[in-house]
């Protein structure tokens, strides 16, 4: 008996094609849904002991990333004496790499620490009216760019932490090489605060700021001017519940032999700002950064007795997780635990993995970051990685795509 050959009909082929297509689609959908994502933060947050709760009283942990290209290393808007410097040293005009809120959402982060500074916000000094009142000239081009960034993040349900940033203090100071870092210019405080810049260093200017010293040529007391800049921002976003926190000042550091923990007087500084900003927005959580970790010197901040809804913060830049990173984290975590408030690491670079100019040992750093993320998850440590784009970034500057091994290591902490 002769067996007949079986042929697939055209309809059978279509049927198989549809099955394969559907199977692939389901697999992709499952893969997408299983991609790690930090729990979204709904509305204003508040603290209960060392725990953060959102507006629905759900426990949440900040798992975020910094965006620092609203302050590209320097400077003051339209500052003529910076025009001859390399591009990286000019002041803000537009973000070199625009923040892609959809991409950040896809990566799984639930918050962005938005790095801003006073020198871009108020590039020209305030003027005095006949009655003695100060008139501020806010840079509305800059403010509207900040508005757009915050609105883009809100659409993706990503919370925003406003950070009033400084690095090497002020754009008045140029070509800096110091133990605090180096750069072609500082950034943060307006250049107009320091018209006699040749008479002092950026570290002396920083110390005098915390000592609340006003120089004769300054149009305004620096601490008061800085507070006015903060009040402007808090007023502008007080009805936007995606703007959940204010990191009052970046890296309020000591200088050995020049500026002691007592000189910084961070408790009084933060109390002054807390009272003023909470009058505008009582829902705003305040982030209190401590001084840098000199192992032979006490930290500047003591327990903030009278402040509520605060996070205790420091930055983690070490060459490894164990022992250096772990030891530093445990020092700050013990203080936060003793004070019964949440700990927040505002910046860390994955032990150099974010540095786009350095060669890295990927397997080693993957192990280091994985161990750190497991620890952070267990201890409920809040964090924002440095940074989304720029010289230190999760984005590959060549491909404009995320560094997948680094991202997966960070997602371990979600």
What can be said about this structure in brief?
By secondary structure, the chain is of the alpha/beta class. It contains 11 helices and 15 strands. The radius of gyration is 24 Å and the shape is globular.
What can you see in these coordinates?
The protein has 414 residues and is an alpha/beta fold. The protein contains eleven helices and 15 strands. The chain has helices at residues 10-34, 101-107, 118-121, 140-155, 202-210, 222-236, 261-264, 266-280, 321-339, 362-379, 404-411, and strands spanning 46-48, 51-53, 59-60, 63-67, 111-116, 127-128, 134-135, 159-164, 174-178, 181-185, 243-247, 285-289, 310-316, 343-348, 382-385. The strands form four sheets. It has an eight-stranded parallel β-barrel with strand order 4-5-8-11-12-13-14-15. β13 (310-316), α9 and β14 (343-348) form a beta-alpha-beta unit.
Whole-Å distance between the termini?
66 Å
Q: Widest sheet: strand order?
A: 4-5-8-11-12-13-14-15
Shape: globular
Largest sheet: 8 strands, parallel, barrel
User: Low-confidence parts, pLDDT < 50 over ≥5 residues?
Assistant: 28-33, 73-88
Oligomer: single chain
Counted by DSSP, the helix tally is: 11
* Strand elements, count: 15
Write down the secondary-structure element order.
Answer: HEEEEHEHEEHEEEHHEHHEEHEHEH
Strand content: 15-25%
Mean pLDDT: 89
Q: Taking Cα atoms only, what radius of gyration do you get, to the nearest Å?
A: 24 Å
Structural class comes to alpha/beta
Helix fraction bin: 25-40%
